[in-house]
């Protein structure tokens, strides 16, 4: 495999529309618009939003609505889902929603698809009702969705209007090896959630590449890794800012979720040994530091994985510090 240069890689944004302690959901949406406009100017390729439900710290539940809002406030950056949890919806409805978005914002909409519920099991039952077993239909539902979005469906009894003929680019999202097999067999681009589920990342992308079958939409494998990044002018400042991210993941590990908390000087009195180990395992693909430190880390990561694109999520409490982190990351990527 030909070695890639960091400066040749596209770089993108994953926004969970995080709600910050002391702020409102409306503040979150305003910050998302500001971040999208900021990263568009910095040369980021995509701005994706993720479907999550029943989480006090995540406000992107109505994902397609928020995608439309962000797309309407920007001009060139691609906007999409990272992802839509397809078992929560009928393929026809998603085809109509994303067909509408693609019609309003031509050649700017991406459709990343996941199999997980994006929530807890009780909430998933509320969302899916009698369709609770729908994850088993995920491979067939992806094909249905492709068909609804294609021009070749024009003679069918059930059609997506709008949507038909838009051929919105579809990605398979994954956090395990199961999704790798599906993305490979369908010849679709593959985005891996290494920002929270790094354990199977290397094995999954190996499976995807080895089993990839070229398709009408993709001639060779395309891997995007989603990563956590907390960049600052110095390593010390980045480490301090990262305590908000670590406390967020601590809430996931302990089941005591909170809004994104302000940074603190030390985590020593916040977690115990086992909690620290669990959080660090989830954050194995996190890049925290000043520009020089991050450049070395990212080049090593690229040498190991040979990914085709990086998608960055940055849980940083202060909005200006978050904007600056994306600015520094963009500079590092361009320099290589």
From TrEMBL:
Gene Ontology CC entries for this record: cytosol
Pfam families: Bac_luciferase
Record-annotated Luciferase-like domain positions: 22-294
MF annotations from Gene Ontology: oxidoreductase activity, acting on paired donors, with incorporation or reduction of molecular oxygen
UniProt cross-references to SUPFAM superfamilies, sorted A to Z: Bacterial luciferase-like (SSF51679)
Family the UniProt entry places it in: To bacterial alkanal monooxygenase alpha and beta chains.
PANTHER family hit by this protein: LUCIFERASE-LIKE MONOOXYGENASE
NCBIfam families the record matches: oxido_grp_1
Protein name, UniProt field: Luciferase-like monooxygenase
């Amino acid at each position: 495999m030909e070695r890639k240069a960091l400066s040749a890689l596209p770089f993108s944004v994953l926004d969970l529309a995080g709600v910050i302690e002391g702020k409102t959901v409306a503040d979150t949406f305003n910050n998302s618009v500001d971040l999208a406009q900021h990263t568009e100017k910095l040369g980021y390729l995509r701005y994706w939003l993720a479907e999550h439900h029943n989480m006090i710290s995540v406000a992107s539940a109505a994902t397609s609505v928020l995608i439309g809002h962000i797309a309407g406030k920007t001009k060139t950056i691609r906007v999409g889902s990272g992802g839509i949890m397809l078992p929560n919806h009928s393929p026809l409805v998603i085809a109509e929603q994303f067909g509408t978005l693609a019609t309003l914002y031509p050649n700017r909409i991406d459709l990343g698809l996941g199999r997980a519920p994006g929530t807890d099991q009780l909430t998933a039952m509320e969302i899916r009702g009698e369709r609770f077993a729908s994850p088993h239909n995920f491979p067939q539902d992806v094909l249905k969705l492709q068909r609804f979005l294609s021009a070749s469906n024009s003679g069918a009894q059930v059609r997506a209007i709008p949507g038909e003929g838009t051929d919105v680019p579809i990605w398979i999202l994954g956090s395990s090896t199961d999704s790798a097999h599906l993305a490979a067999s369908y010849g679709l681009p593959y985005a891996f959630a290494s920002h929270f589920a790094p354990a199977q990342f290397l094995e999954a992308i190996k499976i995807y590449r080895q089993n990839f079958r070229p398709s009408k939409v993709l001639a060779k494998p395309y891997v995007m890794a989603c990563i956590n990044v907390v960049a600052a002018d110095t390593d010390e400042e980045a480490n301090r800012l990262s305590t908000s991210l670590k406390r967020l993941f601590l809430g996931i590990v302990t089941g005591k979720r909170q809004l994104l908390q302000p940074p603190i000087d030390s985590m020593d009195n916040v977690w115990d040994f086992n909690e620290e180990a669990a959080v660090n395992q989830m954050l194995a693909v996190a890049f925290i530091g000043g520009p020089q430190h991050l450049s070395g880390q990212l080049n090593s990561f690229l040498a190991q994985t040979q990914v085709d694109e990086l998608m960055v999520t940055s849980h940083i409490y202060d909005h200006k510090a978050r904007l600056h982190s994306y600015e520094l990351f963009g500079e590092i990527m361009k320099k290589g």
